[in-house]
Amino acid sequence: MTTSWLVTGAGGMLGRDVLAELAADPDAMATGAGRDRLDITDPVAAHAAVAGHHVVVNCAAWTDVDGAESAEAAATAVNGTGVRHLARACAGGGAVLVHVSTDYVFPGDARQPYVEDAPTGPVNAYGRGKLAGERAVAELLPRTGYTVRTAWLYGAHGRNFVSTMLQLAARRETLDVVADQYGQPTWSRALARQLVALGRAALAGRAPAGVYHGTAAGRTTWYGLARETFRLSGLDPERIRPVGSGAFPRPATRPAFGVLGHESWSRTGLAPLPQWDEQLTAALDTPAFAALAATARTGG
After folding, report:
1. Which residue out of 104, 126, 154, 223 is catalytically annotated?
2. 223 catalytic, yes or no?
3. Which EC numbers does the record give (predicted)?
């Protein structure tokens, strides 16, 4: 049976990887809708875009965490109200919604990984807006709505920490990197595969609706991620120097601990994502990252 998929935020890092994953499936018909084609804050446009699709993967988001502090209403219009419009459209058309959220819905004061039903408590405007989107999915799609929280995403398309480290390596001898924030670096291609697998499981009735955590297993700091990126790229990891968060003051508070648990996947027959360093090794072997690493080794 051919299934019809709509991918919102299709021009972004994750959206492009989801479309690539679907393109490899002969039984999937995928439509990509970037910001130029679909404004999810417009309920009429959202309803029209969703119509006729079996699965909607929502990768559309306001991703400027610091910018959200001074423009919370605008950020929440996308991350909260826009998600509500998509969820309502899916409810009316009978579509499954796979919505991408964030670890920033948690306060970051835990000592053990946050389980899927742990109490939320965002510490910044971005997190509050994303939590509003999660609540809309749960309210409007109690049986066909899936929220997948991710974190520290990097990939071949768009700006991200891993590519930035490699670009800076070509221009600077040493780099100061934050060593007191803990999280789970997650490759966008691996997450894209997981989102599509979850959508398929949902259509087959093998995945209960609710919240899932789409982050890599294990944990590290930004400092640890930078060192491993250098090591795997043939660069000297000693060039990375640890600093505290206070060295880089930002408008938005970042949770100090964003490590997530992955218990919900056991209900679907799908394995959680692999360890963060395994994902990083695979990602750095792809042409886009390999080219950045080669430039970094030669100094640009």
Report:
1. 126
2. no
3. 1.1.1.133
